[in-house]
Each structure stands twice: as C-alpha cells, then as structure tokens.
C-alpha cells in the first residue's frame, strides 16, 4: 500500500532538492528572499503612510530596493517608518553577506576544480603522454628540445596524480621548458571519459608510459588496457592515432600490438638487453647510442635528394659536408642501413642521414679531397673466445645471455654471480639453449669484497653489473655503486676489457662515473628516448629495429689501424672513403687522450683535419 505523503513533506523535499544544486540554487533562494523582503516592506509602508512616496507604489518599491542594499534610509523618513527601514537594512545586510559568501565559495570551488585538472584540453597538434613514471622527465626534456624551433608546442600529460604535484615535480626536475607549454590533467588513461579530456583525436602523437613500481606483468597489463581504450573506445575508434608504447615482457608485445592496432610497441627488455651486450663488447658505445637517441646532439633525418636519384649509395656518402648518410628509406617504407655501396637510389627513396639540424642538410658545393695513400685495408683476425662476468641478476639477465651467445665466438664463457635464489634455476633452463657459450653460476653477494676477490675479475674480457629489479631504484642502484667501488679498488687500473653497469635512475649515473667504469646503461631512459624519437617520426622505428637486429647493420667502434695508415694527416672525408671500401659507413671517431670524458665525436665536418684518432665509429653488417 502506497504511503501517503503530506504537502509539507513534499515542499520540504522540493526545497532540499533546489538547495542541493549548489551555488546556483542558493543564489536563487537569496533572490526570492530579497524580493519577498522588499515587497513586504513596500506593502507595509503603503499601509502605514500612503503619502510617504507621493502615492507612487513603483517609486516606493524602488526606494525600498535601493535602501535594502545601500543601508541608508530616506532623509525625510518619519519616526513611524524608521523601524521598517531598520528591518529592511538588517535584511539587506544578511542577503549581501550571504551572497558574497556564496560567490566566494563558488569561485573557490571552481578554482579547486581547475586545480584538480579536470577541464577539457582544446589543443591541436600536441603530444599526449598517458601515465606517470620516472620516464616522464626524459620524455618531457626531449620534447622540449625537439620543440625548440616551433612557435607553438604543447605536451599534455594525463595521469592518476594530483595536477599540482605533477607540475611541482616537473618544474623541480626540468625547470624552464622554453616554447613548450606543459598541460597536466588528473585522470586515468584507462577511463574513456578521462581520455576524451586530452583531445586524442587531434594529437600529433601519443606516448603510453607504464607506472613505476609495478611488476612486468602488471605494467604490461596497464599498457595493454590503455592501448585498447585508445584503439577501441567509441570516441576514438577508426581515427588515425600515432601511438608509441613499450612493454617489458617480450611475450606481451604481440598482444599489445593487437590491442593497439597501428600502435608502435617497443620491447623494452629486449632493447635493454641488446644495448647492454653491445656496449659490454665495445667500450663507450653507450655514449654513441645516447647521442643518436636524444634530441640534444646529432639526430637522424630522412630527406629526398633528386640529384642523387639513379646514383649508387656510395656517392651519397661524400655528397654532404656536415651530414653522414646511414642508409635508405625505400619507397615501400622499409629501411636499409648500410646498403651495399652499389645500391642505386631510386625515385621515391629517401636518404637516412645523421645531422645536427635539418638546416644543415645541404649538398656539398665541391668534391672532397681524399688521400688514397693514407687508406689501408687491415685484416681482422678470427674472433677469439671471450669470457664475461655477470654480477647480479634481473628479469633481463637471461635475455642478455642469449644475446651474448649471438655475438661471441664458440668456446666463450659467461659466469653469473648473484645472491638471488631464482638465478640458479634460470641458468639451468638457459644452458641447453646456448650454442657458443658455456654458462656457469655461483651464489654470492656482489657487494661482499671477499666474494669479488675470489673471482679474479681482471682475467675476464667483459664485466656486466646488473641492477636488481626486485628492489626499488634507489636501493638497487646503491648496490650497483657499492659493487663498482669495490671493483675499482680491486682492479686498480688492470683489466678487464670493459666494465658495464646497468642503472635504474639516470641521476645515479653521475655518481657511477666516479667509479670510472667504462659504460653506464640506463635501460628505461634509453627506451624513453626511443619512444620520444619515434613519436616525432614513425619511420625511425624501422631504423632502430635495424640497429638492434643482429642480422642488420650495427654500430662498431673499431681500431683506426683497420682503415688508416698510422701518422697520416687526413680529413674525415678520407675516413669515410676508407670505410666505404670495406662496405661500411663511417659516422665518427674516438680519441682516447682527448681530455674529453668520452672522446667520442659523431658526424664531424668532412673537411675537418683529423686529430690522431684511436678508433673509427662505423655502421657495419659484420
């Protein structure tokens, strides 16, 4: 049986609903109260003293309205009307103070909403970053550098963080962002409504970041869901989006690409493992990679050069004064780095080259002088077995060993020393799959000086110190630093061939340099650099894929004696010609005693007279 509701209850319910509308409802009730008060006093004045306002009701109404908010009674008011003006003044004080309070609180609530970052973004041709992690600082820093020549550039960040907190952290870590405007919004990249705030459909590119502190499985699940929201969301479905993301577990890359459609998905652990292996075997290679991947030094460009169409690629190598051609972006979208010198450049092909700025991509006005007498063709001996020591263990360690097995000669060895319990079973599963490496494991704390002294570290060709991903970045990097300090003291200038340390936080690299290890690889930072580069130019994905592929062209730092006669005074054009005769592309050189921290120089002027160089940096297929 339906309950009978009284009229009073209905009116109370209606009043409560109108009051719950917030500032608008409250101001409405204040207006009603003000009108009622003015009307009531006007009627009272007309009753008590009809001649007070010359008998004009409208004049009386206007006078009472003005008096209510000016708190001043008419000067000719008699004593009989003063109580009414007094009541009207008190009512006006109440209404005015209440109105000011409501407006103030309404403005404060609006400012609070703006502070929370929930308003829609109306930018166009902007870069959107979805998610928050320590990678954000690298991404924003690189985007600021990339946008230095643009008049209007914006980076929009959507993350489950407080807007003000994000702004403060970025300002503290990065500081001035030049012409690039940073816009932060608080929301979840997994929520379709929140995604609509950042105007994905008109963004130039979208970068997806996995959260810090999550396991590889959880981080990849977050990336997969975000890609699914972008690609399948009703507001975004069917629209072209340039999306770049990275997964940590290689097994999740295929499903992430299915979820992301045309999204470019990088394999973070695989890239990190390849970089560590290549760097461990070639000292200072990490410096070369860092210079190639960031926007601060030389960058990779693609350009169409009609005057070189129909000519062999070898001619392009010496066609530019301040650029180093690396390969060709073919008309079908495939990139070929270091193609055979006789490869003809076809219409529609673009030259992939290294340049400091796109304004420097101009053809040389005259041929370069090449000193043929300074060129030699040194023969490299057969590859000898190598011994590698890995100190520590993480989820990338097995992939590092597998990659090392691809590069080393048969009969090589790798010894693993770690105190992690999961390392020994992993090594047992890994050993049968290795073709050239013999792997051995030993339990031990790599921070223990006694353990390190029993290893005869100086006898190894390469040493790799890994960061433990079961620990937070601060603790893991601290353990790496302790190990490096012990190694520096134990070795005291003696071998091994190179020491490579993996760091989690780029800020710890400056401290690690004090240990005088050869190279430092910050995997997540390098992946962030790659993502940022690809977000600006999607064709760079195929360039980097070729660089990291063991069957493609790779960067080598080789002795100058393979190419040049000792003591010859030459220009870099001669170095380029010498490398070309070996089917390689010279992109720089290294001087050990240069006084510079690394001595690495990329893309020098081809007319520059070379100092006595120790090594030549080349792109080679073997």
UniProtKB/TrEMBL annotation:
Subcellular location(s) of the protein: Endomembrane system
Domain RCK N-terminal: 124-220
Single Gene Ontology BP annotation: monoatomic ion transmembrane transport
Source superkingdom: Bacteria
Topology term for the membrane: Multi-pass membrane protein
Coiled coil: none
GO cellular component, one term: endomembrane system
Segments crossing the lipid bilayer: 26-48, 60-80, 86-108
Keywords of the record: Ion channel, Ion transport, Lipoprotein, Membrane, Transmembrane, Transmembrane helix, Transport
Keyword Ion transport among record annotations: yes
Gene3D superfamilies, sorted: NAD(P)-binding Rossmann-like Domain (3.40.50.720)
The keyword Cell wall biogenesis/degradation is assigned to this record: no
Domain CASTOR/POLLUX/SYM8 ion channel conserved: start-end pairs: 270-364
InterPro entries tied to this protein: CASTOR/POLLUX/SYM8-like, CASTOR/POLLUX/SYM8_dom, NAD(P)-bd_dom_sf, RCK_C_sf, RCK_N
Family to which this protein belongs: Belongs to the castor/pollux (TC 1.A.1.23) family.
The protein's name: Lipoprotein
Species for this entry: Catellatospora chokoriensis
Taxonomic lineage from the root: Bacteria, Bacillati, Actinomycetota, Actinomycetes, Micromonosporales
């Amino acid at each position: 049986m339906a309950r009978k509701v009284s009229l009073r209850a209905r009116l109370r319910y209606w009043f409560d609903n109108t009051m719950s509308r917030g500032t608008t409802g409250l101001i409405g009730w204040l207006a009603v109260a003000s009108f009622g008060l003015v009307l009531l006093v006007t009627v009272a004045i007309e009753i008590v003293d009809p001649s007070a306002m010359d008998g004009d009701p409208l004049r009386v109404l206007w006078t009472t309205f003005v008096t209510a908010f000016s708190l001043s009674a008419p000067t000719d008011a008699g004593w009989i009307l003063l109580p009414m003006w007094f009541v009207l003044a008190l009512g006006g004080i109440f209404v005015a103070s209440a109105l000011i309070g409501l407006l103030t609180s309404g403005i404060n609530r609006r400012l609070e909403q703006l502070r929370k970052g929930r308003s829609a973004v109306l930018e166009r041709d902007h870069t959107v970053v979805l998610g928050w992690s320590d990678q954000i600082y690298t991404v924003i820093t690189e985007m600021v550098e990339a946008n230095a020549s643009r008049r209007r550039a914006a980076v929009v960040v959507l993350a489950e963080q407080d807007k003000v907190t994000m702004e403060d952290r970025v300002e503290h870590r990065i500081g001035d962002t030049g012409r690039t405007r940073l816009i932060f919004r608080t929301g979840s990249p997994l929520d379709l409504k929140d995604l609509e705030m950042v105007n994905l459909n008109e963004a130039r590119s979208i970068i997806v970041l996995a959260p810090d502190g999550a396991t590889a499985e959880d981080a990849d699940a977050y990336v997969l869901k975000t890609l699914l929201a972008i690609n399948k969301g009703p507001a975004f479905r069917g629209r072209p989006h340039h999306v770049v993301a990275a997964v940590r577990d290689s097994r999740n890359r295929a499903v992430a690409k299915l979820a992301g459609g045309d999204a470019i998905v990088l394999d973070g652990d695989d890239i990190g493992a390849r970089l560590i292996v290549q760097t461990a075997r070639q000292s200072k290679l990490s410096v070369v990679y860092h210079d190639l991947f960031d926007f601060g030094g030389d960058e990779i460009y693609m350009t169409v050069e009609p005057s070189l169409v129909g000519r062999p690629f070898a001619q392009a190598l010496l066609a530019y004064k301040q650029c180093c051609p690396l390969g060709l972006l073919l008309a079908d979208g495939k990139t070929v780095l270091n193609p055979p010198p006789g490869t003809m450049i076809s219409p529609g092909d673009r030259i992939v080259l290294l340049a400091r700025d796109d304004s420097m991509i101009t053809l040389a006005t005259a041929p370069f002088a090449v000193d043929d007498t300074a060129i030699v063709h040194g023969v490299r001996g057969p590859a000898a077995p190598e011994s590698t020591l890995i100190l520590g263990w993480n989820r990338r360690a097995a992939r590092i060993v597998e990659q090392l097995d691809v590069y080393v000669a048969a009969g090589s060895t790798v010894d693993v020393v770690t105190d992690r319990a999961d390392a020994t079973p992993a090594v047992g599963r890994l050993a049968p799959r290795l073709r050239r490496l013999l792997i051995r494991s030993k339990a031990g704390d790599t921070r223990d000086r006694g353990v390190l002294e029993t290893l005869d570290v100086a006898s190894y060709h390469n040493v790799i110190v890994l960061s433990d991903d079961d620990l937070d970045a601060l603790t893991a990097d601290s353990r790496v630093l302790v190990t490096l300090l012990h190694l520096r003291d134990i070795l005291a200038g003696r071998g091994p061939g190179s020491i490579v340390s993996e760091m989690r936080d780029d800020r710890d690299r400056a401290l690690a340099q004090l240990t005088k290890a050869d190279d430092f690889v910050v995997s997540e930072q390098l992946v962030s650099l790659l993502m940022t580069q690809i977000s600006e130019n999607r064709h760079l994905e195929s360039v980097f894929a070729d660089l990291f592929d063991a069957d493609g062209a790779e960067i080598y730092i080789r002795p100058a004696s393979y190419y040049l006669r000792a003591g010859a005074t030459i220009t870099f054009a001669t170095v380029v010609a010498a490398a070309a005769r070996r089917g390689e592309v010279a992109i720089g050189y290294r001087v050990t005693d240069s006084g510079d921290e690394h001595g690495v120089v990329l893309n020098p002027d081809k007319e520059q007279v070379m100092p006595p160089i120790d090594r030549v940096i080349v792109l080679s297929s073997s």
